Amino acid sequence: FSNLVTVKNNLLFLVFILFLTSGCKKEQEFAVIHFKDIEQFPYNIIATRITENAIAKTDTFNLESQENAVISLEIKRPQYVYIQRNSENSRLFLTPGTDLTIGQKNGRDVFEGDLKGENTYLEEFYNTENIEDLSWDYNASFDTFKNQTSGFFNFMNNLLDTYVPDSTSYFYRLNKLEN
């Protein structure tokens, strides 16, 4: 009977230790980005993101072939990541576990996979020629200024609704706050 109590106590102790150590482990989350339509190698990529401490963290990748045109970034929370590819710059939105593919069509980024809509929205926002037409004149009359700013924000909200229809998503709510 004493052996049974000892085994039981040892088992409880082992379960308790496993429970304590499981809470101490930090799981690393990554976002994976695949690049396709790269015409010339080697291809350099610089990824910059802001850490929890508001410090910019930069990683540099040298892609040698299309088969290895994949990078993995440690992402602990939803965030923007700035990607510089040779002479092109992109702003991406990534979350832990994202698997995103970036291709090219007519000189613009085309996205496939996770967060396709969110990143297409950013691509359209930063590269649309209509944005400049929607600027406003601070010296205009109040009514003109009001119409100009309303036009801008209506355009931005319609663009967001087009590419990110899930109004409960983090990205959608974040951009509604910004707009």
Your description of this structure?
This protein is of the alpha+beta class and about 180 residues long. The protein has five helices and eight strands; from the N terminus they run αββββββββαααα. It has helices at about 1-25, 115-125, 130-135, 140-165, 170-179, and strands at about 30-35, 45-50, 55-65, 70-75, 80-85, 90-95, 100-105, 110-115. Strands 4-1-7-8 form a four-stranded mixed β-sheet. Helix 2 (about 115-125) packs antiparallel against helix 4. The longest helix is centred in the N-terminal third of the chain and has 23 residues, at about 1-25. The chain starts with a helix and ends with a helix. The model has no long low-confidence stretch (mean pLDDT about 85).
Key features?
four-stranded antiparallel beta sheet, single chain, 179 residues
List the helices and strands and how they pair.
Blueprint: H1 2-24, E1 30-35, E2 43-50, E3 56-63, E4 70-74, E5 79-85, E6 88-94, E7 99-105, E8 108-113, H2 116-127, H3 130-133, H4 142-163, H5 170-178
Parallel strand pairs: 1-7
Antiparallel strand pairs: 1-4, 2-3, 2-5, 5-6, 7-8
Helix pairs in contact: 2-4
In short:
With 179 residues, the chain is of the alpha+beta class. The protein has helices at residues 2-24, 116-127, 130-133, 142-163, 170-178, and strands at residues 30-35, 43-50, 56-63, 70-74, 79-85, 88-94, 99-105, 108-113.
